[in-house]
Design a protein that fits this description.
Length: about 170
């Protein structure tokens, strides 16, 4: 995706966790790396929003009927490679990523890695969902995990061996 354009709209709607310096650039690099890995063609737009546990719990309850906080939610705007297009820019609107910063802190501590690694991983995971990937079967989970780790390694954020393939 080297000659293609990517617009990442990042917003912070929580005050519980300070967003570390460089995270906005990391999120952009991560989105770009996933699209490049997937040979995505053309202009693309992705929205990434940082929230707290209560905000993501409300979204999870409203959209998935799960009354609990989760780490990340993906709201794809396309299906089968077809996306809505921003008429002004011509960008394919891939969708929205919502990340709970409280969960980022909890999981970074649990897995023994940096907040940057956790944010990068959740961003990669979610962008793959925006592109149509899922993890309903073990094979799909492994396939997604391989792609996520490729992106993390490419960005210099290698994983630890403490990750497990948890059910969501």
């Amino acid at each position: 995706m080297t000659k293609n354009k990517l617009r990442v709209i990042i917003s912070n709607k929580q005050k519980d966790v300070e967003i570390p310096t460089g995270v906005r650039m990391l999120v952009r690099r991560c989105c770009h790396a996933v699209l490049e890995l997937e040979n995505f063609e053309g202009y693309a737009e992705i929205s990434v929003t940082f929230v707290n546990n209560e905000q993501i719990r409300e979204l999870n309850n409203h959209y998935r009927n799960k009354d609990s906080a989760t780490d990340v939610l993906s709201f794809p705007m396309g299906e089968n490679g077809k996306y809505d297009t921003d008429l002004e820019t011509g960008a394919k609107i891939l969708g929205d990523v919502v990340i709970s910063m409280e969960k980022v802190v909890e999981q970074a501590e649990r897995f023994g890695h940096s907040l940057q690694r956790e944010i990068g991983y959740l961003t990669a995971h979610s962008v793959l969902h925006l592109l149509g990937y899922d993890h309903m079967t073990n094979l799909e989970k492994v396939h997604m995990r391989e792609k996520e780790e490729l992106v993390m390694n490419q960005l210099g954020l290698p994983g630890s061996t403490s990750y497990t393939l948890d059910d969501e």
